[in-house]
Design a protein that fits this description.
CATH architecture of the largest domain: 2-Layer Sandwich
Strand order of the largest sheet: 1-2-4-3-12
Distance between the termini: 22 Å
Low-confidence stretches: 234-241
Order of helices and strands: EEEEHHEEEEHEEEHHHE
Strand content: 25-35%
Shape: globular
Mean pLDDT: 89
Number of domains: 2
CATH topology of the largest domain: Zincin-like
CATH class of the largest domain: Alpha Beta
Oligomer: single chain
Structural class: alpha/beta
Largest sheet: 5 strands, mixed
Number of helices: 6
Length: about 240
């Protein structure tokens, strides 16, 4: 696949530009420094990309300021009494060594992680992330079915994966939805908000007035949920255009 990269300088701001075989232009702002990145179609003229960046300068600065002021998740070591979240609730991790396959057990206020002796930090992280993935796959079918009936659409397939730049994606042709693994840590209504957002793409491809009307109709509280989600530590903020 052909890819071209270059930079745009807007005063003191530097913007990384990647042009590749895509249909739409996409702008994102990444922590921790507020790095700005634009993905654009190969055919798009550099001056057009620059004008687009200039038109979004106030939005970019707003997101950079928000990222600078937002609390960050501390580095996790996956040790006993460390805080971890599941569906918005804080749990204390309890690490238990045993000579058997790893497993994770959810209790009232704790997440118990059973591991073999000398399991390193990276492996512990993988064990907990796999547990998060399984938990989401357990609860999502019922949630998807509920919204399919309400919205009169059909999700043919869903999946969970780690994403650096999005909370979710929707392949409209395949009717396939991917959700960010990090959503396992957020409240259930934040999870549903992202799911509904992606399902609406089965009714409207673009983030236009029609898309927003569907969102208002099916989830009138979505702005509150979006605000709550944005108060959590996030890996990115983005603008789709």
């Amino acid at each position: 696949m052909s890819i071209k990269t270059h930079k745009i300088t807007l005063g003191k701001m530097s913007v990384d530009v990647v042009q590749k075989d895509i249909k739409n232009i996409h702008l994102s702002v990444h922590p921790p420094t507020g790095r700005v990145r634009i993905s654009a179609p190969l055919r798009m003229d550099p001056d057009t990309i620059r004008i687009f960046a200039i038109s979004k300068i106030n939005w970019i600065k707003k997101q950079q300021n928000r990222l600078c002021s937002q609390a960050r998740e501390t580095q996790r070591d996956y040790i006993t009494r460390e805080s971890h979240y599941y569906l918005g609730k804080r749990y204390l991790l309890k690490v238990i060594e045993h000579n058997a396959p790893a497993k994770v057990v959810l209790k009232h206020d704790t997440i118990e992680m059973y591991i073999r002796p000398n399991t390193d930090t990276q492996k512990r992280q993988g064990i907990l992330e796999e547990w998060y993935r399984r938990k989401l796959k357990e609860i999502l079918p019922e949630i998807i079915t509920k919204w399919e009936k309400m919205m009169r659409v059909k999700v043919e397939e869903f999946g969970i994966k780690k994403m650096k730049t999005k909370w979710g994606t929707c392949n409209i042709g395949a009717k396939r939805i991917w959700l960010n693994l990090e959503l396992a840590k957020k409240t259930r209504h934040c999870l549903e908000y992202i799911l509904v957002h992606e399902m609406i793409h089965l009714l409207e491809r673009h983030h236009n007035d029609r898309f927003m009307a569907y969102l208002d109709k099916h989830m009138p509280q979505w702005r509150s949920y979006k605000g709550e989600l944005n108060r959590f530590p996030v890996s990115h903020t983005e603008w789709n255009y």
